[in-house]
């Protein structure tokens, strides 16, 4: 079982460096994210500085990380293509269960559309 520490971690997502606490990543405990903090788990590729490298779009990882950091309301992108891409990243990181639980307890803000059911039925 992985243990959470309060040490910061740097992650390279698609060439953009993100720094966060392992405890932030552990909020989504049943996902890929806590594995990034484990010395026992080799996540695969590393960049030239030894940081975990994930070849994904950093724009959507930033959205995901902000929700984990603030545990606040979810403000979804206006256009459907961007929401679809965000959903793909949620699935890639194994965050389906986290997002289902999140949507049950937090408001979802979207323009002219109740998107909460969109997420629930697309996993």
Characterise the protein shown here.
By secondary structure, the chain is α/β, with parallel strands linked by helices. The protein has a single domain, classed as Potassium Channel Kv1.1, Chain A (2-Layer Sandwich), CATH 3.30.710.10. It is built from five helices and five strands, in the order ββαβαβααβα. The chain has helices at residues 22-25, 58-70, 80-92, 96-105, 116-122, and strands at residues 8-13, 16-21, 52-54, 74-75, 108-109. A three-stranded mixed β-sheet has the order 2-1-3. A two-stranded parallel sheet has the order 4-5.
Name the beta content range: 15-25%
Write down the overall geometry: globular
- Provide the domain count: 1
Strand count = 5
Number of helices: 5
Structural class: alpha/beta
In the CATH hierarchy, what is the superfamily?
Potassium Channel Kv1.1, Chain A
Task: Provide the gyration radius in Å.
Answer: 15 Å
Q: N-to-C SSE series? A: EEHEHEHHEH
Average pLDDT number: 80
**Helix coverage percent of residues?**
25-40%
CATH class: Alpha Beta
The description of the largest β-sheet is:
3 strands, mixed
What's the CATH topology name?
Answer: Potassium Channel Kv1.1, Chain A
- Which stretches are poorly predicted, pLDDT < 50 over at least 5 residues? 118-123
Which architecture per CATH?
2-Layer Sandwich
How far apart, in Å, are the first and last alpha carbons?
26 Å
């Amino acid at each position: 079982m992985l243990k959470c520490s309060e040490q910061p971690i740097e992650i390279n997502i698609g060439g953009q460096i993100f720094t966060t606490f392992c405890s932030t990543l552990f909020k989504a405990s049943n996902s890929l994210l806590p594995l990034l903090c484990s010395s026992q788990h080799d996540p695969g590729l590393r960049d030239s500085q030894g940081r975990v490298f994930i070849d994904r779009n950093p724009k959507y990882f930033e959205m995901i990380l902000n929700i984990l950091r603030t545990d606040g309301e979810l403000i979804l992108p206006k256009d459907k293509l961007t929401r679809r891409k965000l959903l793909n990243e949620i699935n890639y990181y194994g965050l389906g269960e986290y997002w289902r639980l999140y949507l049950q307890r937090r408001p979802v803000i979207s323009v002219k559309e109740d998107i909460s059911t969109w997420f629930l039925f697309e996993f």
